[in-house]
Amino acid sequence: MLQIKDLHAGIEGKEILKGINLTIRPGEVHAIMGPNGSGKSTLASVLAGRSDYEVTGGSVEFLGKDLLDLAPEARAGEGLFLAFQYPVEIPGLSTINFMKTAVNEVRKYRGQDALDAAEFLKLMKEKMSLVNIDKNLLTRSLNEGFSGGEKKRNEVFQMAMLEPKLAILDETDSGLDIDAIRIAAAGVNAIRSKENATLVITHYQRLLDYIVPDFVHVLYNGRIVKSGGKELALELEETGYSFLKNEMNIA
Amino acid sequence: MNDGLSTIEQQITSDYKYGFTSDLEADQAPKGLNEDIIRFISGKKNEPEWMLEWRLKAYRHWLKMEVPEWANIKYPPVDFQDIIYYSAPKQTKKLNSLDEIDPELRRTFEKLGISLDEQKRLSGVAVDAVIDSVSVATTFREQLGELGIIFCSMSEAIQEHPELVKKYIGSVVPMTDNFYSALNSAVFTDGSFCYIPKGVRCPMELSTYFRINAQNTGQFERTLIVAEEGSYVSYLEGCTAPMRDENQLHAAVVELIAMDHAEIKYSTVQNWYPGDKEGKGGIYNFVTKRGICAGVHSKISWTQVETGSAVTWKYPSCILKGDHSVGEFYSVAVTNHHQQADTGTKMIHLGKNTRSRIVSKGISAGVSHNSYRGLVSVAKNATNARNFSQCDSLLLGDRCGAHTFPYIEVKNNTAQVEHEATTSKIGEDQIFYCNQRGIDTETAVALIVNGFAKEVMNQLPMEFAVEAQKLLAITLEGSVG
Ligand SMILES: Nc1ncnc2c1ncn2[C@@H]1O[C@H](COP(=O)(O)OP(=O)(O)OP(=O)(O)O)[C@@H](O)[C@H]1O
Ligand SMILES: [Mg+2]
What we know:
CATH superfamily of the domain at 71-212 and 223-250 in chain A: P-loop containing nucleotide triphosphate hydrolases
Number of helices of chain B: 13
Largest interface: A-B, 34 and 27 residues
Shape of chain A: globular
Bound molecules: adenosine-5'-triphosphate, magnesium ion
Strand order of the largest sheet of chain A: 6-9-10-3-11-12
Distance between the termini of chain B: 12 Å
CATH topology of the domain at 71-212 and 223-250 in chain A: Rossmann fold
Order of helices and strands of chain A: EEEHEEHEEHHHEHEHEHEEHH
Largest sheet of chain A: 6 strands, mixed
Helix content of chain B: 10-25%
Oligomer: heterodimer
Shape of chain B: globular
CATH architecture of the domain at 71-212 and 223-250 in chain A: 3-Layer(aba) Sandwich
Number of strands of chain B: 23
Number of strands of chain A: 12
């Protein structure tokens, strides 16, 4: 469903992604790990269509379409979701109202009728219990004054609401307590299906106990330098990233 | 970053949705202003002698006054001799029912989305519609009449309730108050009059729609609301003007009087033609609005959503004379393209234990300028006065300006006056966050702006809150790319 070929991208003339190759098929869960500053969030942002980043080479195909050609909102309409590493605050706008607009805009994009208030409420209740989020949080201004963990939980809730085909979770586990990680993982697993795929960016193998990946990739200095099965995550947990420097120096 | 921010300034393509003119035969005065014109207006309206004298006095005073220049706005000088001061849609006989209204006039209202009949009846809104200068229809009269509430056009009030008009007109905004109030006093043609008797809670929102229709007519309404002891009224004024090339002058005067324990809520949704993208045309909106909390424990609350006009100069104010009286001012002012707004309030604390609250939200886009100008004044005898002011500005793009001019004059040391101000920009990251959820940039801006203005929007009567939200979105259409 997602095919990234030799993707190069950067910001203000500085190259950050230096040739990424990655293929994700429906039903798969991929994990990306890698040291701070290696370009993980940049990859997520480029896929979501953040305009600050300039794509300087390569291609990305998503469900048969040229992803890089689509506006960010169209990418969302096509079924791409990004749970942000740093969710933004929007004062005065409740998550409920935000989601009502989002869900209906996405439906519009797909040629579906807008949900009316009752239908929306039903959907919301269902997803709220799925990710175990408190209603009070959803009536407050979006992310304003939320704790780090509450913000992440809100991202998972939004993901559940939008039922994406490809969800990218950028360090959704950091800041979450153990219970919350379990719940977030349950949320991801609940929408996991043969048609959907997930790309999990994380520093911790712990999350991968709950969201078991089919593949683990190590991103270093703008390139995927190592790929493997879920055991690679365990290996990294023990040895850290120091091996990379050696390998890279040799290479 | 560059890409995003520069596009904020690009697409600026919002078309004014109310730009049509209707072919109503108008009955109008020749251009220009002199004593004869004033006699003409007064004669047309069959006014009593005292009213004419009052107008002439105002006119003579106006001749000696100069155009105010202190506001943070720039516009070419207005030629007061190039304006038609009276223009009435021709209407031969007096209307007995709504069905008799000129169909063309009705269509005008329909295009504006004002329905004079069932819809508004159902939503419980009484409408006093003002087209150019003459009030054409007043609904709900009878129902209100049973409660002793008078809600009619100013012209009718002069005929039918002269003692009330004579007593209160100019009592809050003296004719000599300022250049535009003097001009209005001389030439006002119509407006609304509203009287709520003692102990009566007005059961519905009273509403007036103003509309500037004929070419080159200045609009000078005069509105007067008197709330007797223990009464309550909520009043909404909405305005639209068709598209015109020449700038049209609008100089209204609104006076509110609240007696002991009375409360007046006055809400305005103003979306007059702001001019085109290059700043050509548009309404000059120079309004004097003032209320007096004359009695103890009285309350006056102004709420305004200002999205239109090329130039706005407007400071709805409260004189807190009665002890324990409360004044409130909630404002959202949006400017785009070349619009200029200088607006704010004055809270004049005279009585003891008086309280005032100011919440001003300015939103600027394009190359517009948006200024908040407010005065909080506490007189020597006003012990324990309290004021809280919050002025927030939101900028869209790099070429617009937001300015805050708070003036504080405190002559009693028991006063507590607090002022907070913030300026923020719509963040590229906020927009991207919305985009990522499938929301396009236009809608994202509307969501963010409405969130920013929420505290004020919440003050509006329910029926109009939705309309006001849409107006904000329309005004800012295309202001962020
Ligand atoms: N707006 C920007 N301006 C300049 N440099 C940037 C910008 N955004 C990212 N970078 C740089 O790009 C590199 C990759 O950043 P990125 O956020 O993708 O890393 P990451 O792998 O997600 O790291 P972390 O694990 O800390 O989240 C870093 O060196 C970062 O400083
Ligand atoms: Mg990151």
